[in-house]
UniProtKB/TrEMBL annotation:
Biological process according to GO: mRNA cis splicing, via spliceosome
Matches recorded under PANTHER family: POLYGLUTAMINE BINDING PROTEIN 1/MARVEL MEMBRANE-ASSOCIATING DOMAIN CONTAINING 3 (PTHR21737), SPLICING FACTOR CACTIN (PTHR21737:SF4)
Name under which the protein is recorded: Splicing factor cactin central domain-containing protein
Basic and acidic residues: bias regions: 281-302
Length: 312
């Protein structure tokens, strides 16, 4: 009987040891799994950090290239060999040499197809530099984006003109349905020409409503209007930006004149700036005189009270 009890106890101890060993094994496996998960998380974190650092370096590199592009543009302007994109960049700076008469699309007026293609490449490069440098919003980005659409329109016009000339040389003018399509194109352009940005946006909403509303509508005509709206909105936006830049340039010129007028040397002073400075000086003197007079009155009042007060 005692032997059986001893055997049972030994079996229980053995089972407990096995259970403990199994428990230790599970804990070790759990730690190894946690360590593996931690290592994987750290590796992922390091990869993400490396990607962020790389993106930061890429952005810095793009910013450097954008700065270098501005420097090269300024050099070409100074040396009298400016490209159309340099003229646009100078206008966009809205500095003291802003040309109020030259609007953005004017730089393309006399360009050949090859020159317009070069301009398109330069404008697209400006956009890519800005977006690479993290400057994908703002007036400057909007300017280059709108300019790209207008350059594409100029290319279309030049190519159509060249094609018409080729057809003319072959004696094939006015064949097929080209005339009807051209009539629609001219009608649409006359409808959109000269409208403001807000008016074009309102018209765009009306066109979309017309096309999606169903009913008996002239789909070809309204689709053409919708397609042409992108260009006319870009052209109107360039007009708006030109007006903003003109105002900024006027402000810059006014500040420069005031600074020149306030300087002790460097040429004749601006009369308006001199008058403003003199008026400010007189106002300061008047304030100082008023303050001195008020202080004197207060001192006299205190002296009067001291004389009239009874002795202790």
């Amino acid at each position: 009987m005692a032997d059986e009890l001893t055997l049972d106890a030994e079996r229980r101890r053995h089972a407990e040891r096995l259970a403990e060993i199994e428990k230790v094994k599970r804990r070790r496996e759990e730690r190894e799994r946690e360590r593996a998960e931690h290592d994987a998380e750290m590796e992922q974190l390091m990869r993400e950090r490396a990607m962020l650092e790389f993106a930061g370096w890429e952005q810095k590199e793009d910013e450097f290239h954008a700065q270098q592009a501005r420097v090269r543009s300024e050099i070409r302007l100074a040396e009298g060999r400016a490209k159309p994109v340099d003229v646009l960049a100078k206008q966009l700076a809205a500095g003291l040499d802003f040309d109020f008469q030259t609007k953005p699309r004017d730089v393309m007026a006399e360009l050949t197809e090859r020159e317009v293609l070069d301009l398109r490449e330069d404008v697209a490069h400006q956009l890519a530099l800005m977006e690479g440098a993290g400057q994908s919003v703002g007036m400057e980005h909007d300017f280059w984006g709108a300019m790209l659409l207008c350059v594409d329109e100029k290319l279309r016009v030049l190519r159509e003109k060249a094609e018409e000339e080729r057809r003319g040389r072959r004696g094939k003018q006015g064949q097929g349905a080209v005339g009807g399509s051209d009539d629609i194109h001219a009608e649409v352009d006359s409808l959109l020409e000269g409208k403001s940005t807000s008016a074009l946006e309102e018209m765009e909403a009306q066109v979309v409503a017309t096309l999606t509303g169903g009913g008996a509508v002239e789909v070809e005509y309204w689709e053409r209007v919708k397609a042409r709206l992108a260009y006319f909105k870009a052209a109107a936006l360039l007009e708006d930006i030109h007006a903003v830049l003109a105002d900024k340039s006027v402000d810059a010129q006014r500040r420069a004149m005031m600074e020149e007028g306030a300087a002790p040397v460097g040429g004749p002073r601006d009369p308006a700036a001199a008058a403003a400075e003199e008026e400010e000086r007189l106002a300061r003197e008047a304030e100082r005189a008023d303050a001195e007079e008020a202080a004197a009155r207060q001192e006299a009042f205190r002296a009067t009270r001291a004389i009239g007060s009874p002795s202790p």
